[in-house]
Amino acid sequence: MLVCRVIAGQVRRRDGDGEEGKEEAGPFDSVAGDDAGGAYGVLEELFVANPRAILPCFVVVYRVDVDAQ
Questions:
Q1: Where on the tree of life does the source sit, at the highest rank (predicted)?
Q2: Assigned domain for 35 exists
Q3: pTM (predicted TM-score)
């Protein structure tokens, strides 16, 4: 698994109905998914337009220990 940091920039959020916010204007660097929280909520999905904004940080390697059973 690759754990990354993301430079989100200006995020376009959607309201509770899934409709785009009408008060928001201007260019956006990323778009929050339908399950975005409030102003400081957790973002489950974030669509980033610029691939250079995704910065790999850690590699997590999982393995199965067959002797543990």
A1: Eukaryota
A2: yes
A3: 0.59
pLDDT (tens digit per residue) in 28-58: 998 887 766 666 667 778 889 899 999 999 9
Helix then strand then coil, in percent of the chain rounded to 5, is 10, 30, 60
Rounded Cα gap, residues 13 and 18, in angstroms: 9
pLDDT band of residue 11 (cuts 50, 70, 90) is: confident
Give pLDDT, residue 56: 94
Amino acid identity of 40? Y
Alpha-carbon gap, residue 11 to 24, rounded angstroms: 10
Both structure tokens of 43: 């973002």
Number of domains present in the structure of the chain: 1
